[in-house]
Recover the amino acids of this structure.
């Protein structure tokens, strides 16, 4: 399992997940840069993603929906804020309606994904910061740690293929 550490910090409103992969930084970058690869790992196995728009550029937008086991769909978006290919990127991640308009009733997280060489492979650090401790607690209660960990753990199978 690639996920090696999960830290929740309500005081600083952050969730940090660390994962180690047996692949070079450039290969892990490609998982996020290619929408078809991203679909295989963005969302837990029981809620696979379908990427609709994918512009991994500063100011770009990524839109997607996850489909649950009963066919229910949950839409989301990324608003890309920085790109440092292949070392990482940052984005605002939010829930959306079926037309990919932000859902103001749900939390938005500011995310920084970094990829660094580590022990002959890549250490990925995923940091999500929320507007409030309550917003972080809301997504924790929704199972974000389990869902994100299951999603990230799918990367091993993808890079091995």
């Amino acid at each position: 399992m690639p996920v090696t550490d999960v830290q929740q910090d309500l005081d600083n409103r952050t969730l940090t997940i660390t994962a180690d992969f047996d692949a070079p930084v450039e290969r892990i970058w490609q998982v996020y840069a290619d929408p078809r690869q991203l679909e295989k790992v963005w969302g837990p196995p029981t809620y696979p993603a379908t990427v609709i728009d994918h512009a991994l550029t500063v100011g770009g937008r990524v839109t997607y929906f996850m489909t649950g086991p009963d066919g229910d769909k949950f839409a989301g978006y990324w608003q890309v804020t920085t790109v440092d290919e292949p070392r990482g990127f940052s984005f605002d991640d939010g829930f959306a309606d079926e037309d990919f308009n932000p859902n103001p009733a749900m939390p938005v997280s500011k995310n920084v994904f970094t990829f660094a060489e580590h022990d002959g492979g890549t250490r990925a650090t995923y940091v999500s910061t929320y507007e409030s401790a309550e917003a972080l607690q809301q997504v924790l209660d929704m199972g974000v740690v389990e869902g994100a960990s299951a999603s990230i753990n799918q990367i091993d199978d993808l890079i091995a293929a």
User: Anything to note?
Assistant: The chain has five helices and eight strands. The two ends are 16 Å apart (CA to CA). The beta strands are 3-9, 14-21, 49-54, 61-67, 73-84, 88-96, 108-118, 121-130. The mean pLDDT is 96.
